[in-house]
Amino acid sequence: MRLEVDGRPVDVAEGSSLLAAVEAAGVRLPTLCHDDRLTPSGSCRTCLVRADGRVAAACVTPATAGGTVETGGEDIAALRRDAVEIIVSALPPGAVDGTGSELARLCASLDIRPGTAAGTPGRGRDTSHPFVHLDADLCIACGRCVRMCSEVQGTFALTLTGRGADTVVAPGTGGLWAESDCVACGGCVDTCPTGAITEPGPGSGLTSATPRAARPDTVRTRTTCGYCGVGCTLEAVTRDGELTAVLPARDGPVNRGHACVKGRFAHGFLVSPERLTEPLVRRNGRLEPVSWDEALRRVADGVRQAVAEGGPDAVAAISSARATNEENYLVQKFLRVVIGTNNVDNCSRLCHSPSAAGLTAAFGHSGGTDSFDDLERADCLLVVGANPAEAHPVVGARLLQRVLHGGARLVVADPRAVGLAQHADVHLRPRPGTNVALCHGLAHVLLAEGLADEEFLTHRAKGLPELASLLEDYRPDRVFELTGVPAGELVSAARIYGRARRPAIVYGLGVTEHLHGTDGVRALANLAILCGAVGTDHGCGVIPLRGQNNVQGASDMGALPDFLPGYGRVADPGARSRAEEVWGASLPERPGLRIPEMFAGARAGTVRALWIIGEDVCATDPDSNRVAEALDVCPLVVCNELFLSGTARRADVVLPAASWLEKDGSFVNFDRRFQRVRPALSPPGSARSDFDILHAVARALGADLGCPAPADALEECGRTAPVFAGVSHTRLDREGAVPWPCPDPGRPGEAKLYRESFATPDGRAHLAAVPYLPPGEQPDDDYPLVLVTGRRWAHYNSGSMTRRSGNLELASTDWLDLHPDDAARYGVGDGRPVVVESRHGRARLIARIGHEVSPGEVFCAFHFPASGVNRLTSGHADTVTSCPEYKVTAVHVAPALPDSADTAGTHGRRGGR
Ligand SMILES: Nc1nc2c(c(=O)[nH]1)N[C@H]1C(S)=C(S)[C@@H](COP(=O)(O)OP(=O)(O)OC[C@H]3O[C@@H](n4cnc5c(=O)[nH]c(N)nc54)[C@H](O)[C@@H]3O)O[C@H]1N2
Ligand SMILES: Nc1nc2c(c(=O)[nH]1)N[C@H]1C(S)=C(S)[C@@H](COP(=O)(O)OP(=O)(O)OC[C@H]3O[C@@H](n4cnc5c(=O)[nH]c(N)nc54)[C@H](O)[C@@H]3O)O[C@H]1N2
Ligand SMILES: [Mo]
């Protein structure tokens, strides 16, 4: 619609505010209570305009077609100035003086002198939280922080308390900020216009709205978060080569100005005194600092010897899902071209390899079927075995808003009462390891109640007769016996999904990390296929919440034993010859070893050189006592690391690596978007990027990997893999995010897949008639409880980075959740140390009694390697992909003895050889 602003015509969308119209006309008004990310509140009265002759607050007044708006008159400008002046006058002296806040900038522009601030100080400070400090004296009760916390983050941790001029923000729980529900997303810090809520330290007062010119001594580097797979766009602010703050980018395609406690705040690790700054080599059983030349020589000699003794297949590498695409590309090229083996894998093996296998079999491509943005239109979210509120907080927040304000119905399937479950229409609580039966139960109801899409099934899918006959065995009453989910709840959930107009499935490790994880993915994909909710406008498909920042990319780049870049099979001569042409080398045709096979090979003496890049396998791989044995007997273990991890401590050569804030390249996020990673800092000491280390090791072996810069590596990758041919650094710099498949530099990538046909050989979606089979571990009299392992919000995987940041103050230990009945039965007290024992090992944790877990089940994370959680987990793994069964381990729990004699295990230094 069209209206007039200061005599000029302006077009805005229906439903826009006067503020939007004024801004479209290029006029800037003071807007102290307004933030584009939030619903307007109209409380500060600083955006006053004259609309059709009447004075109105522009942010809350709807624009009307044909209306006239005046912003420029002296009277109205004076009203706005008065509004600001009244707000400022209530603040104590110094409130706008040199703070650089939005309010201070506004005062400067309106010529309101700092001395105007003449209120009485003394409303108090709260500095209890490591990342969020409150100075109540500076609060103007604009409510932006409160709305940010409820409307964007969905935590509802903040409230306005007090009356009149004394109204201030406070944690809703009443006490200290550190004891509140705050999950430190940083949203309140970022929106606060006055500096009342700030991040302590050098970033104090900086927000994503601070203009560059306001801090000319700082540099801002736009990059992609290096923690989880959400792919938040962040701005790293540096001054004199030191990190000042990390701010969410307002125009980040996934995060839109939001972030979480990890990306926003967990960067203390960068300057930890424990950062590795020089190479280490083992001499007489001890790791000692050496020059790069010497370290590289030791690697090259060891690799040559391994090849001499056992051929190229005696060498293996674990590539890093923390590292860039370009680094992963070089790792697999190094193994295939320089060594001549396919022994390369990445931690997607431990995580979403069942997604890759299951989604490829069902639909054709190894990734989620739809873009995350599509979920904005979903009217039903089926969240299975994922806890995005803690593990993917920015996604979790957007899903929650979709439920709270977008009208989407929510079904959560998780044995635990996880964050989103509180808001679910139906919360299904299957016994761990029973997803296949649960999904078949849902599918049974879809068919029985005529909720399937016959047309879609006839024209676009395959396998219905086989599935339908299998599903006869999965009536709700039988599914109750298998899963523990009451029939009524199963039926309700199926109806919600089956009757939705645009249903979406989002899932996580609760589906994949099982003995039958790939079957779990396929059984879940069945639901979308039955309802025609994938590859159509009807639904939003199936989206795995992939884990590490670049776990999608590491696999996309071919850091896998059976796939070349872009998922050409190594066993396929056509795919091999395409890569051979680009690389000018002939490639090994036998698929290589998977991670667990590498360890088995080391124990058996067939793997004689193992290069581990950015993965703490001794902490995070299952049955870690056996992993340690493998490293101890392998003649050469090389480890690229930021820290002397448990794995690095067992290595023969440790190479100091740059972190995500210190390097150049790209990541692929969970919904297949390539995004740029840019160095904001130099690595410490002589640490180098994994990219440079790869080149250096190749050179030490007399080889040249080509592609001198990361941009060259991505370009070369595009030549071997047509699906990435249209992606390049220049394009990413220009467009921000580009999803794959993207074969053409001149055309957009495909965010939503399979509109015309599926990428399977016959172009159809494939239903899977796989029967439910029980998990690998079962409780018995000796190990009566089922342990589920997973994540906590404040720490990340091995915790190597988050434990070396203020996050340690937010959670200082790993604890074991158990139900009050079990606590009573096993004599365990809340907050007391417990010993957890499985058939494979023993761990020591702190008990936390509560109702998040069901009786008979216990839960813990694995963020503190010293607790030994992965000594408990078994060697059972997905029968298709070898993804470990981290989610089901039979354990026994007992109170710990007062001394620590029972922390048995094999952590610590590797003995002399
Ligand atoms: N804060 C934080 N964020 C992270 C990480 C981190 O360590 N910390 N790690 C990142 C990585 S690498 C990954 S892969 C992702 C993982 O993200 P998620 O997949 O969300 O993480 P998990 O907590 O491991 O597991 C998810 C849920 O599965 C449930 N579950 C277990 N067994 C079953 C089952 O049989 N059926 C069903 N339906 N549910 C089950 C668990 O109770 C748990 O709540 O998170 C990423 N983000
Ligand atoms: N019990 C249990 N265990 C699990 C899981 C579970 O649910 N339960 N989940 C599994 C899953 S899904 C995953 S993904 C794995 C994760 O397991 P890991 O990959 O081992 O864990 P991370 O802590 O992410 O990082 C590994 C190491 O990389 C280093 N690092 C970080 N950035 C870089 C870099 O750029 N270069 C180099 N060279 N090093 C870097 C870090 O310091 C850290 O020591 O854990 C698995 N383990
Ligand atoms: Mo993961």
Automatic annotation (TrEMBL):
The keyword Metal-binding applies. Residues 1-75 form the 2Fe-2S ferredoxin-type domain. The keyword Phosphoprotein does not apply. Residues 218-274 form the 4Fe-4S Mo/W bis-MGD-type domain. Its EC number is 1.17.1.9. InterPro entries: 2Fe-2S_ferredoxin-like_sf, 2Fe-2S_ferredoxin-type, 4Fe4S_Fe-S-bd, 4Fe4S_Fe_S_CS, Asp_de-COase-like_dom_sf, Formate_Dh-H_N, Formate_DH_asu, MoPterin_dinucl-bd_dom. It comes from the Bacteria. Pfam families: Fer2_4 (PF13510), Fer4_Nqo3 (PF22117), Molybdop_Fe4S4 (PF04879), Molybdopterin (PF00384), Molydop_binding (PF01568). Keywords: 4Fe-4S, Iron, Iron-sulfur, Metal-binding, Oxidoreductase, Repeat. GO terms for molecular function: formate dehydrogenase (NAD+) activity. Residues 130-161, 173-202 form the 4Fe-4S ferredoxin-type domain. In the C-terminal section; belongs to the prokaryotic molybdopterin-containing oxidoreductase family. NCBIfam families: Fdh-alpha. This is Formate dehydrogenase subunit alpha. The gene is fdhF.
